[in-house]
Amino acid sequence: MSDTTPTVDGMVLYVDGSFRRGRAGWGFHGYTYQDKPLTRGIGIKQLPTTKGYAPMALPDTVTPLEYFDAFGPVTESPTNNTGELQAAIEAFRLAIELDVPHLYLLLDSEYVRKGLTQWVKGWTKRNWMTSQGEPVANKSYWLTLIDLETKFKDGRSVELVWIKGHSGDVGNDLADFNARTGSGNGGESYLSRSPVEGYHNPKTDVNPLYLKTRMLFNLGGSDHRTDEGCYYYQYQLGRLQSYGHKQQDTQKDRHDKTDLLLGRRIADATFCVVKVPEADEYLESLIEYHAQAHQRDIVELAIARLDTAYKPAVYQRIRQVGDKALIPIKSNGSLITPNDDLVTKTLDPPRLAMEAVNTFANMERQLNGLLENTLGKHVDVIDITDTFYGRELKGKTKEVVSLHKHITNTTPTLDIPTEFKGQTVTLKLVLGVDIPQRNALAKLAGEDTRVSVLVMADGPLAYSFATVFQTAQGSAIYQSPYTRFVLPKSHSEPT
């Protein structure tokens, strides 16, 4: 039986170091390749070549065989320079282990490149003293690096090339991201070997019922998981989402001010309670990682920035390396990405957030009331499934339920006329705010999908309403709880 493993013709590795918040880290990114051109794109404009990523035509590319990402902390003499040195050391170790015939090493540190290619000869002649008569800094790192380079060059070739940092090069940006990860979490070193398919175009597996904006969760309090299902509280605060942010604020200032108005009566705020049959593995991991980093012996509220957590690159990294992908910040009880994007934060103090908890709890009762047929006469239920979904012919004979074709990705709102207490009322639903976005709505189509409007009287003339989706993926209730519609008095019924 012949060996079908592709021949490795070479390896490209980008290396980088980081020093942040008093900690140093190292990281690299790269790929092994076969020296034949790609037959199609890979989801990014810069394509892999023998000399790294570049905006090349397909005939000038190489075919990557495997992607490599690694990171770790630097504990001995932690500085940016030792981070750069350790990254190069780890790169050579991997190249030796894989026995690649050629290594193309890209560094944004002239310190490491010139050290290896120019300064080492003088240092060794002067018994590791500089030309000014001072001991060479980081000698132990240099000795290790020189030894590894020498071992690699025995029957193999290497090119060391300087690349400008933060210049938009895909490989350098990924190496920088990995180095920041290494300097942030203070844990053990990590190496990931990823298959080529989908690496640069990762997909997120997200329930289409989710709003993907914010999530409120409990720390140390009642569990959101029950025998009947699991509940997730999601929300967005509309135009006041960034309330209190100022142009001169640092990133941490913005994190500290995140969602200060949660619980205040904001007209365009939208709340959502999602009930799914089983706990969502990814959301549960965010809750768990935050609790491990920040939970105290008291009941607290915390939020998750789902708009950050569901970014494909962030989602891919968290699924790949777990809590190593997140950096805990003790001063404000948060978890952030290596690029300083907020993922979770404890609300300390909770301020008005307890009001939001009451709103969510009431919506949860309404959702369960509809699902269990126990709402009572004080809530009117209007079926609007036909507004969203209809049957269409698929192929020659098969009929399927699908989203109406007039609802497209450019549809901002749905104006839904409905009969209520003897007159027509138009309900306006904003896609992606009051209800899921168009693509999510399409995924929710099914034989058992039902969409309802719940109308609740808040007074003799004023009414609030909520939209409920019952689907195979679970159920969800969406509401702008501080928005009302009013019926003219002449048409209202006595209460």
Can you count the helices?
Answer: 11
What is the name of the CATH class of the largest domain? Alpha Beta
Outline:
elongated
Main structural class:
alpha+beta
Helix content: 25-40%
Average of per-residue pLDDT values: 91
- Give the terminus-to-terminus CA distance: 84 Å
Q: Calculate Rg over CA atoms.
A: 28 Å
Number of strands: 24
Most strands sheet: 12 strands, antiparallel
- Which architecture of the largest domain does the CATH hierarchy give at level 2? 2-Layer Sandwich
CATH homology-level superfamily of the largest domain: Ribonuclease H-like superfamily/Ribonuclease H
**Remind me, CATH topology of the largest domain?**
Nucleotidyltransferase, domain 5
Domain module count: 3
In the predicted model, the low-confidence regions spanning at least 5 consecutive residues are 491-495
Instruction: Work out the strand percent.
Output: 25-35%
Task: Name the features.
495 residues; alpha+beta; 3 domains; disordered C terminus
What this model shows, in words?
The protein is of the alpha+beta class. It has three domains: 10-194, Nucleotidyltransferase, domain 5; 214-354, no CATH class; 356-491, no CATH class. Helix content is 26%, strand content 31%. Strands 9, 10, 11, 12, 13, 14, 15, 16, 21, 22, 23 and 24 form a twelve-stranded antiparallel sheet that branches. A hairpin with a 2-residue loop joins strand 19 (413-420) and strand 20 (423-430). Helix 1 runs parallel beside helix 3. It is elongated and about 95 Å long.
